[in-house]
Amino acid sequence: MLVYPKIKKVMEIGFNSGSATDTILSTRDDIKAVSFDIMHWDYVYCAKKYIDKMYLGRHPLVSADSTKTIPKHTPDTKSDLIFIDGGHSLPTPSLDLKNSKRLSHAGTLIVMDDYCLVHGIHVMKAWDDAVKKRVINQIGDRRYLEIINEGGL
Questions:
Q1: How far apart are CA 102 and CA 70, in angstroms?
Q2: Before 91, cis peptide (omega within 30)?
Q3: Among 61, 73, 113, 133, fewest CB within 10 Å belongs to which?
Q4: What is the mean pLDDT of each run of 10 residues along the chain (153 residues)?
């Protein structure tokens, strides 16, 4: 976030324990984030309380299935960063990417977690298909992602 000072509005799919949200919001005081989560685990509520205490007014959390709520979401402005760490089974990763595109602008960075063979085979397919169909423009080298995910570097 320090490298990208223009990032001020973040959308996150998959809040879970709030660790990514905490990392993002702790970087700078001018960043706001909205998260979408199915609220499956009890600890999600504790994590939300912590985030609200630490970053007052900077984090709304939408409790619902992202594949249904993102298409209806109408923010005031588009997101500068979209972090996707939602469902790992098709069609969820593909739908999250497709639906997020509408909430992005030309300079939006989209990051998708779990691009790996261990538990992200459908995430990999969704990402690769979106790149191939030019839904998103990948920056960087996919091989680098694979090296990191396989425990290299």
A1: 9
A2: yes
A3: 133
A4: 86 96 97 96 96 98 95 91 94 95 92 86 94 88 52 43
C-alpha distances in angstroms, 50 versus 13, 16, 58, 84, 147? 18, 13, 12, 21, 34
What is the DSSP track for 82-108? EEE----STTHHHHHHHHHHTTEEEEE
20 φ, ψ to 5°? -65, -40
Rounded to whole angstroms, the Cα distance separating 76 from 142 reads: 33
> Which stretch of DSSP H or E encloses residue 9?
strand 9-13
The partner residues of 10 in beta bridges, in order of sequence, read 33, 81
C-alpha angle 134-107-33 in degrees, rounded to nearest 5: 110
**Euclidean distance between the first and final Cα of the chain, in Å?**
22
* Tally of CB atoms within 10 A around 58: 18
**Residue 147: its pLDDT value, please?**
47
Question: Could you report the per-residue pLDDT of 102-121, keeping only the tens digit for each?
Answer: 999 999 999 999 988 887 89
Question: What backbone phi and psi angles, to 5 degrees, belong to 147?
Answer: -65, -45
